[in-house]
UniProtKB/TrEMBL annotation:
Classification via PANTHER family: METHYLTHIORIBULOSE-1-PHOSPHATE DEHYDRATASE (PTHR10640:SF7)
Organism the protein comes from: Paenibacillus albus
E.C. designation(s): 4.2.1.109
Spans traversing the lipid bilayer: none
Protein name: Methylthioribulose-1-phosphate dehydratase
Coiled coil: none
Length: 216
């Protein structure tokens, strides 16, 4: 399916959802210093052909303007002529869509996610044991244990992608970039938001729990 074949309503829905989520996350202080990026997929999906709307790079994401989003293809190339630049991290979105077929991907930076990625960097994953909010990931085992993967962060974004490819865990709808931020995804915007909120809760929990253990 080409970009032109995708229904206008589908594209408008994606932009409306992105606008709503962006404003909500901004109200929570989740885009400090222009950080973070959001995307929602549109149209049919094949691992080698898909399209998505994504935040434009370097914008103040607490503001709402007519130049907040653009559409790109599976290679991260704009689908229409525009002076906007897609997020500098678009290739990470491309890779996550390629591997998971997700419908939405949200990325934010926070103090808790950055600290825990460093606390657990040596084991390359953030362990979470038996916390109820693991159920937000549709993992319903009693006393579930999960490991949230942490990958290296590089200024050169294409260098991050191979480790994302390697470490993506089909059970866990997220991946943490070391001292950078969390990527969370889901079948749609509602699910990606639920996952992101759960990750952020768990990161704060893990941080505070770790501190209590170290003091004891
Ligand atoms: C000032 S934040 C550094 C870039 C970053 O990590 C980020 O999430 C925002 O980049 P974008 O190009 O999507 O605005
Ligand atoms: Zn980032």
């Amino acid at each position: 399916m080409s970009f032109e074949q995708i229904a206008t309503e589908d594209k408008q829905r994606a932009l409306a959802e992105l606008t709503e989520v962006k404003s909500l996350f901004a109200s929570r202080g989740w885009f400090p210093g222009t950080s973070g990026n959001l995307s929602i997929r549109v149209g049919d999906y094949k691992p080698d052909e898909f399209h998505f709307a994504i935040t434009a790079s370097g914008k103040d994401k607490s503001l709402s303007t007519s130049e907040d989003f653009l559409f790109v293809d599976q290679a991260g190339k704009p689908c229409e002529t525009t002076r906007l630049k897609p997020s500098a991290e678009t290739l990470i979105h491309c890779e996550i869509y390629r591997q998971t077929g997700a419908g939405a991907i949200f990325h934010i930076h926070s103090v808790f996610n950055s600290i825990v990625s460093e606390l657990f960097w040596e084991r390359k994953s953030i362990p979470v044991d038996g916390v109820e909010l693991i159920k937000a990931f549709n993992i319903w085992d009693e006393e579930a244990h999960i490991d949230i993967p942490i990958v290296s962060n590089f200024a050169h974004i294409p260098s991050i992608v191979p480790e994302v490819t390697e470490r993506l865990d089909p059970r866990i709808p997220g991946i943490m970039l070391r001292k950078h931020g969390i990527y969370a995804w889901g079948a749609n915007a509602f699910e990606a938001k639920r996952h992101l909120e759960a990750f952020e809760f768990l990161f704060e929990y893990v941080y505070r729990w770790e501190l209590l253990q170290r003091k004891a």
